[in-house]
Amino acid sequence: MKNILDKKKVVIVDDHPIVKKGLVQLINKQKDLTVIKTASGSHEALKILETENPDLMIVDITLKDSNGIDLIKDINIMDKNIAVLVLSMHDESVYAERAIKAGAKGYIMKQSVTKNLLKAIYTVLKGNIYLSDDISSKLLDKTIKNKTGDNSIPDVITLLSDRELEVLEFTGQGLTTEEIAEKMCLGLKTIETYKTKIKDKLNLKNFNQLIKFAVEWSILHKK
Description:
The protein has helices at residues 17-28, 42-48, 68-78, 92-102, 113-125, 133-147, 156-159, 162-172, 177-184, 188-201, 207-220, and strands at 8-13, 33-39, 56-59, 83-88, 106-109. It is of the alpha/beta class.
């Protein structure tokens, strides 16, 4: 049996207790991996990094006190040697590229956990990028189009910032400006500014069109 000092140390950041419990059980069954801590939000995760030195952090995109993309950026600022693997229910076609750009080493959807989680973990611990074959193909196709000067109209994912995309998603889920502000821990005027920027970037005429677009987009990319 391997000594705990020989095992790769893992921290899980997810606000679903059942998900965390399942991940802990799966990972701790591996002879060379051990979960040293779990967290439900960004603040708790960053506090862990003040006293622990994990090899890997498994992070969800949606957390109770922050956006997982912001947490990934903060982790990289604190320690670039920590591998970050995103595990989320969010559509990978929407968030995988953003997560990698933020500093994550991999992205896996929760629907694929049973089949691919361990493969993803070992891939990123080796310093490699882990993405599904489908999203890897899409990103490669996008790169080729950019290099060949394809001037197709950019999609929502390309146009909007991380925060703007988050506001669009919440709007599509039917949340009011006040509810979005509370959820994102931001002021009402800030959320209104984000909505205005989204409307302008998407060439929408008014906020009613924005709400309609957000709902339709949310259904298309439903978790």
